[in-house]
Amino acid sequence: MKNILITGGAGYIGSHTAVELIKAGYRPIIIDDLSNSQEKVLERLEEITGMKIPFYLGDCADRSLLDQIAKDHKLSGVIHFAAFKAVGESTQKPLKYYKNNVGSLVALLEFMEAHSILDLVFSSSCTVYGQPDTLPVTEDTPRKEAESPYGNTKKVCEDILVDLIKSKSDLKIISLRYFNPIGAHPSGKIGELPSGVPNNLVPFVTQTAAGIREKLTVFGDDYYTPDGSCVRDFIHVMDLADAHVKALSFLENKNTNFYDVFNVGTGNGNTVLEVIHTFEEVNDLKLNYEIGPRRPGDVVKIWADTTKINQVLGWYPKNSLADSLRDSWNWEKKLNE
Ligand code: NAD
Ligand code: WQD
């Protein structure tokens, strides 16, 4: 059984990926400092998978801890999720974001080279495209001026990976540019756990439906889109998790010194109002919402061209928007039980 180190594996996307890795016959090993997650996720993962996952509490930039993990387990690859992701906070505390997001990647790459651990999947983001001039976006769509220091950390990290491969490093690396991950494991045992008031749409929707928030504000309905609200490509987190498994197994069959980038989305754009109405329909409830002003800095519309990941990795999403919103609500309900 191959051991895969998952940095940030107690977090939203990492925890779902751990489930999919186990299903595919890998053994995940998690390192997480719990700065944005909770230790009980580990118990939940055990309940879902029937497997106890080795867990290391700490910073994935801590080389002595990484060396200890490599001593305890022969690692064949790494999936690097660990990062800070609050866009607003990153504009207030840019150094916190550069230090963690860029610093942890550099530390991890040094560690991988030192131990000849060659395969890496890196969490990038559609944020690197900013507001693209043409839609849908392919991997060749030019990256834009980042909307935030957070977005810029993802661009810088991608650039570091490109430079490393140019330097003839033996590493084999895939960056996955995620679009908007939503949904939860169908069991409702793991899901997204935003701390404080959610910034993202779907956690705000589910918390409003649960009565934790009084009402949802739709940030603008006067954009040049089918119903005036913004358009995003919402991808079920289990499908996103599966993309990591496909990326890893693809890397295993590659020769050394390899880098590529893939979009991970559904290939469809949905408006914010479509999300609300689909959520109401699939869960048979009414959501308290109002139309409010535009949110400064919002991208108006973006969705992925997924031809490359479909053809090269053989990855296709299995879940619809309705499936995702049903699973998001199932998770939120169970949280409040
Ligand atoms: P998350 O906050 O739920 O998970 C990240 C995990 O990393 C958390 O458990 C946190 O405690 C941990 N962590 C942070 N810094 C660490 C460090 N230095 N050492 C060890 N652990 C650390 O976030 P997520 O939504 O699961 O995102 C995972 C990755 O995907 C991030 O890199 C994020 O930038 C990227 N991403 C997320 C989205 C999204 O909308 N959720 C979209 C695009 C890209
Ligand atoms: C989606 C749409 C809002 C909340 C963020 C990050 C980006 C990337 C993905 C990580 C927008 C609208 C939201 C609300 C609303 N993350 N909305 N009312 O804007 O695509 O991007 O997540 O890499 O970097 O910036 O996601 O969920 O915040 O918003 O109307 O209360 O929902 O205006 O149109 P976004 P989001």
TrEMBL record:
Q: Which family does it belong to?
A: Belongs to the NAD(P)-dependent epimerase/dehydratase family.
- What biological processes does GO assign it? galactose metabolic process
Known pathway: Carbohydrate metabolism; galactose metabolism
Primary enzyme class: isomerase
Q: Which GO terms describe its molecular function?
A: UDP-glucose 4-epimerase activity
Q: Which GO terms describe its cellular component?
A: cytosol
The keyword NAD appears for this protein = yes
What cofactor does this chain's UniProt record say it requires?
A: NAD(+)
Q: Keywords assigned by UniProt?
A: Carbohydrate metabolism, Isomerase, NAD
Task: State whether it acts alone or in a complex, and with which partners, per the record.
Answer: Homodimer.
Name the Pfam families for this protein.
GDP_Man_Dehyd (PF16363)
The protein's name is UDP-glucose 4-epimerase
Tell me the ranges covered by the NAD(P)-binding domain, including all copies.
Answer: 5-326
EC number, UniProt record: 5.1.3.2
- Report which reactions are catalysed by this protein: UDP-alpha-D-glucose = UDP-alpha-D-galactose
UniProt source species = Algoriphagus kandeliae
Q: Does the keyword Calcium apply?
A: no
